[in-house]
Specification:
alpha/beta, five-stranded antiparallel beta sheet
Length: about 625
């Protein structure tokens, strides 16, 4: 690896961080971004040795913000990017456009003055499949051109700026959803002023869902019982239970307004598909829908299930690109899978949960063997309760290191389950069940208590003091008594608060912001270290980072895994590092497994790391040996 080249690229990207950060803050707060754009444009022109250039961001109402240098310093000379010329080509094709001599351009010029330019390049700024703006740079001297390294550098600049635009777009969607909901409420109140209209509306509301206008649970069961009553012994009725995948993540990260917006989009997509199949669609729960398909046998019903899954997947690909939107479907057929509506729904629910267990975003027909899987799930829950009572859990520890000094700065506590009959049970198998049932609260409290006790034992054995990091679940954190329980654990173990680190996820950080901020401030006042775990995989908001008393950002290992091969991952990691540094936070990279990853992170000013390169999860005794060896 050419370290000198990497350092040069790092220096160029670092110069863009300040105006990029200023632009992200301005977009988030709805302020004018022109000054930040001007700074970014001037910095890029200086690095490319270009005298003329402009950048345009366009909103729904036309031009939103712009900046220019050289010929375009007078803003009236900046063209509307969509119309013509090289910028129009880049905008329409959604890819960079380059020309060696603009004076030879055969099509209509956006401005006659453009014939003074020779080599020129236009690079679009995109979020998802939509172009929101254009960077344009040009030389006037004959013989000058844009080489491949310069085009690569422009691509990185456009990619980072597009990332900022995408984050701001999520805020805009949430605001629009809130406006839509308020408008709906005003419309309902207006209609209810008329007594006759109000009575009709109440009847409608009794049988329909207010958010989607679809039939509700009551209407669904009436329709199902009616369909079964009209069905002869030789006819069939298919029942499909649908559950939206990862919906809780949307609510936790973007809020309930964004969640409502997603439900409306899903409802519209499902309604279009079921109408074509002459099936009955209802919303029967928060993120649950149900379908009745009279006269349909299993083969036709599975085809309908596949189309419904595909329809929802298209929504995820268009609007919600940062989330894994999908649909899990369970299917039963009358009379084979049940004689009553309740039995058909119960068995379809069982099939749907099995579809989720298979990996989500798929469908599953009911069969008798599914009962075995359901019973296994219930057995695991019972054994999990017994494990907590009988002390079957134990902790392993993974070291965290500062590569500048080579010293260990912390140990992350990781819970493991040693089942008396099954042996070691994977955390991926029991943690989801613990979270779903609420058992994660008791397990989490035990982990925190045991980790603090072990840290005191290490120090008593002569190990140099360091932090022990404990993962905190959302259910555990949002208990009213949580802060008091941390204080009690510290007092009982005798551990100084500065040697305890609590890791929370982004979903915790954005949920119930006022209460979360109050708890975090109380923990920090106590002296406890706070970190955001898996940063970058959820809603990486500047709002909560600015307001919350957070010490450390932990870059999720998904961005580290292909760091040396994937340019996008490098750009995102660099943006997170710069964001943390600008907010005076430490930044720790998770999942570092290769020397090349370590070296590249160091060039980006990230020196705190954790991963197999420095040590796999180990027993308390092995951890003590490792700590005593340095």
């Amino acid at each position: 690896m050419d370290v000198t080249k990497e350092q040069g690229e790092f220096a160029q990207e670092s110069a863009l961080i300040a105006p990029l950060h200023e632009m992200m803050v301005a977009l988030t707060n709805g302020e004018d971004v022109s000054r930040a754009l001007q700074g970014m444009l001037e910095c890029a022109c200086a690095q490319l040795a270009v005298e003329h250039g402009f950048v345009v961001l366009q909103g729904k109402g036309g031009r939103k913000a712009e900046a220019g240098v050289g010929h375009f310093a007078t803003r009236r000379r900046i063209p509307r990017a969509r119309k013509a010329g090289l910028c129009g080509r880049a905008w329409q094709r959604q890819e960079p456009a380059v020309i060696a001599d603009y004076s030879q351009w055969q099509e209509r010029l956006p401005d006659p003055a453009f014939d003074i330019f020779r080599a020129a390049v236009a690079v679009p700024l995109s979020t998802g499949c939509k172009v929101n703006g254009i960077f344009f740079f040009a030389h006037t001297e004959a013989g000058r051109s844009f080489d491949q390294p310069e085009l690569t550098q422009l691509g990185r600049l456009a990619g980072i700026a597009s990332f900022a635009l995408a984050q701001a777009g999520l805020y805009e969607q949430t605001k629009n959803a809130l406006r839509a909901q308020r408008k709906m409420v005003r419309a309902l109140r207006a209609s209810e002023r008329n007594n006759l209209a109000a009575q009709e509306r109440l009847r409608y509301m009794a049988y329909h869902d207010a958010l989607t206008s679809l039939p509700n649970r009551l209407s669904f069961f009436e329709k199902l019982n009616e369909a079964l009553a009209q069905t002869g012994a030789e006819r069939h009725v298919a029942v499909l239970m649908l559950d939206l995948d990862h919906f809780k993540l949307i609510n936790d990260t973007l809020g309930h307004d964004a969640g409502d917006l997603l439900i409306q989009e899903v409802a519209a997509a499902l309604a279009a598909e079921t109408a074509a199949s002459q099936a009955f669609l209802a919303r029967v729960g928060g993120d649950e829908f149900a379908v009745i398909a009279p006269g349909v046998q299993e083969r036709e019903a599975t085809g309908l299930a596949e189309r419904l899954v595909a329809a929802v997947q298209k929504i995820g690909g268009k609007t919600w690109t940062e989330f894994e939107i999908g649909l899990s479907v369970g299917l039963t057929c009358f009379p084979r899978d049940g004689a009553t509506g309740s039995e058909l729904v119960k068995n379809a629910d069982s099939a749907m949960y099995c579809a989720k267990a298979k990996g989500r975003n798929t469908w599953q027909c009911y069969n008798d063997s599914l009962q075995v899987a359901i019973q296994e799930r219930m057995r695991l829950e019972r054994e999990l309760r017994r494990a907590l009572a009988e002390g079957q859990f134990f902790l392993q520890y993974q070291p965290q290191v500062d590569i500048r000094s080579g010293k260990f700065i912390g140990m992350e506590a990781l819970v493991r389950w040693n089942h008396p009959e099954r042996g070691l049970v994977s955390p991926g198998q029991f943690i989801p069940v613990a979270e779903e049932t609420g058992l994660i609260v008791g397990i989490g409290q035990w982990v925190m208590s045991e980790a603090c006790r072990q840290n005191v034992a290490w120090q008593a054995a002569g190990c140099e003091p360091l932090r022990v990091a404990v993962n905190i679940s959302a259910r555990q954190f949002h208990q009213d008594w949580f802060v008091g329980s941390v204080q009690q654990v510290l007092e009982e173990s005798g551990l100084a608060p500065r040697w305890l680190e609590l890791e929370i996820t982004e979903s915790i950080a954005v949920e119930n912001a006022a209460a979360t901020q109050e708890k975090l401030q109380a923990l920090r006042a106590m002296g406890v270290h706070i970190s955001i775990d898996d940063f970058g995989t959820g809603y990486s908001s500047l709002i909560y980072l600015k307001n919350y008393p957070v010490h450390t950002l932990k870059i999720d290992q998904t961005f580290i895994r292909d760091l040396t091969k994937d340019e996008s991952n490098r750009a995102i990691a660099q943006a997170i590092i710069a964001m943390g540094k600008s907010l005076k936070m430490e930044v720790l990279a998770e999942g570092v497994e290769e020397q090349e990853q370590q070296a590249l992170l160091a060039t980006k000013d990230c020196y705190l790391m954790q991963g197999y390169l420095f040590g796999r999860p180990m027993s308390p005794e092995a951890a003590a040996e490792l700590l005593m060896s340095v």
